Amino acid sequence: MVKLQLVIEVTYQEKILYYLSEESIELEMAEFLKLGKTKYSERASDFLDLGKVSSSRSYFLETKHGLMPMKLIARTAYAKNYKGWHDYNSIAYARALEKLGFKVRHERSKSKQEPKIKPRARKRKYYDVLVRPNQADFRRRVIKKFKGRCFLTGCRVEEAMEAAHILPVAEDGSDETRNGILIRRDIHRLFDLDLITISPKNGNVKIAKEIRAEYRDQIEASVDLKMLDIEMLKLRYG
Fold this sequence. Notes:
Layout: H1 12-19, H2 22-35, H3 37-48, E1 59-63, E2 66-69, H4 70-82, H5 90-99, E3 104-106, H6 119-130, H7 135-145, E4 161-165, E5 180-184, H8 185-192, E6 196-198, E7 205-207, H9 209-215, H10 230-237
Antiparallel strand pairs: 1-2, 1-3, 4-5, 6-7
Helix pairs in contact: 1-5, 2-3, 2-4, 4-5
């Protein structure tokens, strides 16, 4: 007898929507208003058994009562319905909630408490903040995966290589190898600014008009998507 295996690809957004509803989110929003931010966060941390739970730093639900921390509310509602939880990133939660009809605001403002520092000191502070304890390990793993070759230019000078995150850390992207792409340092900067993008549909590489003349002869017109995590690309570009 021949056994057939049916493989269904389900996105993070679809997984979240399976356990979330408009009603479940509204119930959590009402609870947030009743308890206040601090008590609600404490209750959520106890329920999720995560220790201290921080609210979203950049994603909020817009309501007539003001802004509410999107991920904290959505993750708690998901956990109650699922009887457990998965730490999906903020983008997946945001798109799921928009699908349910909620208005989500994404803010990337700098902290008002950021101290004023001189140009030289600012450069060093920026470096200290960005370099995480596991960054070196992440780089080693990504270099190994891509065999030391820049995925977009073919460059093999290891000193010029950087391990970039497909889904940015600022958007809750992880340091898992699958979220990495090895690219040349200057390409990394342009990739982070979305001046160079990769289509999750066909692997076509798009170069922004303002840098096209300089980079079009250096970068592949399309890439093999088998080397990248399609789900991460979809979360990045929508």
